[in-house]
Amino acid sequence: MRTPDDAMVVQQEQQLTPQQVEALMPYGSDLSLETGDLLFDENAAVDSFYVVLQGTVNISRLAGAEEIPLVSHGAGEFTGGLAVLTGKRSIHRARAATPARVLEIDSETFRRVAVELPDAGDVFVSGLARRMRQTQRTFRQQEKLAALGKLSAGLAHELNNPASAAKRASEELGGAVLAAQLAALEHDERFEPGERDALLAVRRETAAATVSLDPLSMNDAEEGLAEWLDEHGVEEAWELAPALAAAGIEAEHLDALAGVLGGGSLAAGLGWLATTIELVGLTDELSTSAGRISDLVGAMKEYTFMDRAATGEVDVIPGLENTLTILGHKLEGVTVQREYEEDLPQVPGNGGELNQVWTNLVDNAADAVDGRGKITVRAYTQTGRLVVEVVDDGPGIPHEDQTRVFEPFFTTKEVGAGIGLGLDVTRRIVGAHGGEVFVRSEMGETRFTVKLPAGNSRNGG
Fold it and tell me: Quick one: 293 and 315 in the same domain?
């Protein structure tokens, strides 16, 4: 890891001495820049090498409509060399941060400097070599990210087909299992017709019921059924009770069955009932899990705009919904409230980038509520703009930190829990889309508000 002292040494190695700058003066032209003047940008080939004589020149990269600052050059430092050597356009832009003087050396003359002024040439070569390595590392990282994106797209495509097939097969399996169990009951000579009817009636009643008990209540229900089974001489009571309780069967159901089924038939009938419930439940769980995979793959494809152009008219509602789906594991135990205005206008921009904004905001809200509480996601229009709000009822952000949350590397999370780039990225993306993002926080309510220019087309409400 590079320390601040290491960075200072590197900066000094890339800086010309006053004597070297003086020796370079006959090789170039002295340019004067006012604050905000562009020295060069990414729209034209750079054919000159520049040495800062006075003031400060900022190097930045254009991201949408926003300039992302990268580095500042002061007196004795230089820029433009990589573009001159490669003969290509610069990937950055240089803008005067203060009134400045810059020495411009054209590309032909620049090539003579290394021979005629070897001391200055050494500084140029070492500095340019280091910047070239940094640029190559950046390009390699971008290539890795692009390759990862292609791999993810291929993986999503390959997962979708077997997941869909598994969901269909599990649904058919559930029907086949139930049919086999019903056929087995029909031909089971241990039961009289009236006993079979009683078992089928309980199965139908519990199949239509929805059971939603917390773990403590479910444990109590299992214990109650196990005691009833023990009292009535049913063996393996503790094995049968969980399946019966999960289906919502209560002591009243068992009393009714005991009144119809004889002593020998009761244990066999409850065994058949528990087995049927368990088998059908397993196939339902399999179907639900396979469906969850399909839903996640579909959400990921929509989230990344895998099958369509990323830039265009964007409907924010599917983006918000896909984000909530993908972050579902972090929202367990959290009440998520949606408040979407009907017939919302679309937003011109990059759908994938906007989804990154929603992800950062919802992810932060999920961290704030920590598995409990409520998160509200709103989308509505206001004076020609589309507004998205993510509100949580967590502990809030201290007042003195609210003005800094969008700064790079600033975080209110514990060490190791965050690096402080999510909201900086959010600010940049929203700014590049011509929008604004705000935060307002107090104990019990933190509200992030994103305002984006609305497009002309509207979504069907």
Answer: no
Q: Is residue 16 part of a domain?
A: yes
For 408-418, write each residue's pLDDT tens digit.
655 655 544 44
Q: Residue 423: what pLDDT?
A: 81
Do 165 and 291 fall within a single domain? yes
pLDDT of residue 451: 93
Q: Report how far residue 74's alpha carbon sits from residue 105's, in angstroms, rounded to the nearest whole number.
A: 17
Average pLDDT of span 236-254: 86
The CA-CA-CA angle for residues 74, 75, 79, to 5°, reads 65
Q: Is 4 or 199 the better-scoring residue by pLDDT? A: 199
The number of folded domains in the chain is 3
Q: Cα–Cα distance between 31 and 39 in angstroms, integer?
A: 10
Q: Measuring CA to CA, which residue among 173, 153, 177, 187 is closest to residue 300?
A: 153
The one-character DSSP state at 400 is: G
Query: Among the residues of 316-350, which ranges form H helices?
Result: 316-326
Q: Which of 460, 412, 418, 416 is nearest to 439 (CA)?
A: 412
Q: What is the pTM of this model?
A: 0.46
Q: Do 163 and 40 have their domain in common?
A: no
- Say if residue 354 is in the same domain as residue 225: no
Measure the CA–CA gap between 356 and 354, rounded to whole angstroms: 5
- Give the integer Cα–Cα distance in Å for 33 and 101: 6
Please give the pLDDT value at position 457: 62
Host domain of residue 184: 158-298
Write the CA distances from 168 to 283, 284, 289, 418, integer angstroms.
Answer: 11, 11, 12, 41
Q: Are residues 412 and 438 in the same domain?
A: yes
* Residue (of 42, 129, 145) closest to 94 by Cα position: 42
Position 293 scores a pLDDT of: 77
Clarify whether residues 294 and 325 are in a common domain: no
| Mean pLDDT score of the chain | 79
What is the spatial distance between Cα 67 and Cα 254, in angstroms, rounded to a whole number?
72
| The predicted structure's pLDDT at residue 446 | 92
Q: What is the mean pLDDT of residues 316-320?
A: 91
The CB density around residue 27, as the number of other CB atoms within 10 Å, is 19
